[in-house]
Amino acid sequence: MTGVITDACIKCKHMDCVEVCPVDAFYEGETMLVINPRECVDCSCCIEACPTDAIVFDTEPRAAPWLELNATYSEIWPNVTIKAGQTPADAADFHHVADKYARYFSANPGAGDSDDRVAAVRAACGHCRRETLLDRWRKAVPRWFSAKG
Questions:
Q1: Beta strand 26-28 with 33-35: parallel, antiparallel or unpaired?
Q2: Tens digits of per-residue pLDDT, 20-47?
Q3: How many C-beta atoms surround the C-beta of residue 25 within 10 A?
Q4: Buried b / exposed e across 55-80, counting CB within 10 Å, b at 16+?
Q5: What is the average pLDDT score of the chain?
Q6: How many CB atoms lie under 10 A from the CB of residue 49?
Q7: Among residues 34, 37, 62, 88, which is most buried (max CB within 10 A)?
Q8: What is the mean pLDDT of residues 46-59?
Q9: How do residues 58-84 score in pLDDT, each as one tens digit?
Q10: How far apart are CA 94 and CA 12, in angstroms?
């Protein structure tokens, strides 16, 4: 099984699902997200986190029309791993709109994770600001981590 994002995500992109994914299997388009079926580990965290019920397992009947779209665009669009303001301001206006795919789908990629967005989120996160063991090793033994080898 794998998670599949349906048309309910179009024009919503709440990103709650991205925040809980343990394997970073989400990819961002201009108007929606998709899940890479080869990366998804079927944990269902994203399904529970999605406020618009846009994610289902591939075994559910309503997933069928979206399986190929998720597989195709997850190979094209950029990976997204953080929630950093991607949700459109008018997302709530599109929660129950019919025929969203025909009216609003865009094959254009989204921004994905830019270094600036990742840095901003990490700077605000107390956990991410902590020095890691690897950081300490890099300071203690810089020659191991230098480009010269």
A1: antiparallel
A2: 999 999 999 999 999 999 999 999 999 9
A3: 24
A4: bbebeeeebeebeebbbebbeebeeb
A5: 85
A6: 16
A7: 34
A8: 95
A9: 999 999 999 999 999 999 999 999 888
A10: 7
Whose tokens are 């048309």? That residue is 7
Q: Give the type of residue at 100.
A: K
CA distances 64 to 47, 48, 95, 145, Å, are 16, 20, 21, 47
Q: What token pair was written down for 60?
A: 């559910």
CB burial class (10 A; 0-12, 13-18, 19+) of residue 32?
buried
pLDDT given for residue 99 in this prediction:
93
CA distance linking residue 67 with residue 84, whole number of Å: 26
Tokens, residue 86: 């991607």
- Side chain identity at residue 92, one-letter code: A
pTM for the whole thing? 0.77
User: Max alpha carbon distance in the chain (Å)?
Assistant: 59
